User: What shape does this take?
Amino acid sequence: MNTAVSAMYNDLHGLGVDIADLKLKANTAIAFMDNFLVIDRSRCRTAAKERTVLAHEAGHYLSGAFYLAYSPYEIKEQAENKAFAASVEKYVPVEELRRAMANGFTEPWQLADYFNLEEDYIKEALHYWTECRGVDFNQ
Assistant: This one.
């Protein structure tokens, strides 16, 4: 698995997404449904942060889950959950997670280093695989 930040940009370009690095007031990144992504790289202090932001935004393109700024909360939450699931399946796939765990990467911080993603994202990914998808990593 390629954990370089450049791999994330390549994935997005492969999905036909144009990317602009611009200063944003409130967000780190915004994915637009017309295949345009804006990221404020100055808010990404680490490669793991940038990869995590890009993984999440890629999830929107992978799943087609978008919403308008004035959409009701339920619509936003549904789209965010769908995008998160798609990003986890792409960037923290269950077989790669099993392989990492078999090689001794068992703590969330270790898995975060392994995947070069933020620890909170890894914790949510573990929750997704175990609680939402019923994966048992103890087998």
User: Anything to note?
Assistant: The longest strand covers residues 18-21. The radius of gyration is 15 Å. The CA atoms of residues 100 and 106 lie 8 Å apart.
